[in-house]
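ok, trying the design again with the full structure, not the truncated one.
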């Protein structure tokens, strides 16, 4: 009997208010989900800890580690967007947990270590520090984020201190050197699998993402007495940017652009907005287009500012390259899906994933399962138990193949 469905319900209640789930970096809600996972992993006989970057790392080590191949790592994330759903990230972590449970239950003996990760702060909802945990895990420098202030006004280093963590210790989370390859199961978060009646999909490329914080400064003034032609209205400038980016993305075809968060000051109905701060998220899977997106955002903001008599500041909040998934792992996953008689296809990912951080260091593969009505980053996010199972089954079988390869290769796959 699968434990997965009960776990999905249980974890959905941590930080869950009705159907919406709120678990953000360095909050009690996310840490309780992490502690829940640590307990489950220990019950299964793994060692488990929360590392200095807030990642849960569980390890199933092999008896003789002297010449064991590097670990196979599986996982995803437990944090959410504001008012997010129960499946984005959590289904990947809980499917990884279920795969380990199944291997243990059948007495499987791996020839190489199996690690599981619930990476901290994949979404970046509180500090715009997306993929914080996986970035620390691979050893990339996060020092520039020290003074980043959260949506609640609390600086990152202070938020960590409040939960007993130390920003200076984050580099100690680096553990990529022990990893041979990474596999992540995730919900598709879009409509294609449902439309094509797919059971599973193999991810080809994970989209590249640029995040920008834009501030437009105008002049606060009276809403009724200031002539319409003489205003320096920051919100009007921001509106121009939103529409211009939408149009640029539509024209490009393979780009998406989004402004999902805006703050206007001072915020009075009868007051012209003197300042607008908003956040741009712009994406493409096209490796050639990606480097041009920063210029597109800057040019668009500068044009809007000039048109409205405003001044502008633009800061990069995050940047993640588009990354192709490993071809050998894609092949192995596809072979297994065929062997299980599944309807599957190769699909790119328009969502960002920890996999794209890991993929810059080790061979990485991703399995998608369908999202009902293509809805995600919303409380209505849903993947039924019947839609979950094929992905878990593929993950478990592929894991067995990887874990039985004592000499660290599976066919042409070097792990
Ligand atoms: C993460 O879910 C992202 O795509 O931003
Ligand atoms: Mn997400
Ligand atoms: Mn996710």
């Amino acid at each position: 009997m699968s434990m997965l469905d009960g776990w999905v319900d249980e974890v959905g209640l941590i930080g869950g208010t009705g159907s919406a789930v709120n678990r953000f970096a360095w909050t009690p809600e996310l840490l309780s989900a992490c502690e829940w996972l640590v307990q489950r992993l220990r019950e299964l006989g793994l060692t488990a800890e929360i590392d200095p970057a807030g990642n849960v790392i569980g390890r199933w080590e092999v008896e003789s580690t002297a010449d064991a191949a590097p670990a196979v790592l599986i996982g995803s994330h437990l944090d959410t967007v504001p008012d997010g759903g129960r499946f984005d990230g959590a289904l990947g972590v809980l499917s990884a947990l279920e795969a380990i449970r199944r291997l243990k239950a059948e007495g499987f003996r791996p020839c190489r270590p199996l690690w599981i990760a619930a990476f901290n702060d994949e979404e970046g909802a509180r500090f715009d520090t997306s993929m914080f945990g996986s970035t620390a895990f691979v050893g990339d420098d996060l020092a520039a984020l020290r003074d980043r202030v959260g949506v609640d006004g609390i600086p990152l280093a202070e938020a960590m201190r409040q939960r007993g963590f130390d920003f200076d210790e984050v580099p100690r989370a680096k553990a990529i050197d022990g990893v041979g390859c990474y596999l992540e199961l995730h919900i598709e978060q879009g409509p294609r699998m449902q439309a094509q009646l797919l059971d599973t999909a193999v991810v080809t490329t994970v989209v590249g993402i640029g995040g920008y914080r834009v501030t437009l400064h105008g002049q606060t003034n009276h809403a009724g007495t200031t002539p319409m032609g003489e205003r320096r209205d920051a919100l009007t400038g921001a509106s121009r940017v939103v529409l211009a980016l939408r149009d640029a993305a539509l024209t490009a075809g393979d780009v998406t652009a989004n402004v999902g968060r805006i703050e206007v000051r001072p915020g009075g109905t009868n007051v012209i907005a003197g300042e607008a701060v908003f956040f741009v998220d712009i994406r493409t899977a096209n490796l050639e287009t990606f480097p041009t997106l920063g210029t597109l955002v800057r040019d668009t903001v500068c044009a809007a500012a000039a048109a409205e008599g405003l001044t502008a500041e633009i800061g990069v909040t995050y940047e993640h390259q588009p990354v192709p998934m490993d071809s050998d792992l894609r092949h192995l996953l596809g072979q297994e899906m065929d062997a299980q008689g599944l309807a599957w296809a190769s699909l790119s990912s328009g969502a960002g994933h920890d996999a794209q951080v890991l993929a810059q260091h080790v061979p990485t593969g991703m399995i998608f399962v369908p999202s009902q009505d293509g809805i995600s980053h919303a409380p209505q996010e849903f993947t039924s138990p019947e839609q979950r199972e094929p992905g878990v089954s593929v993950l478990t079988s592929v894991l067995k193949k990887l874990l039985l390869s004592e000499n660290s290769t599976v066919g042409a796959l070097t792990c």
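Keeping the full-length input from now on. The first strand starts at residue 16 and ends at 17.
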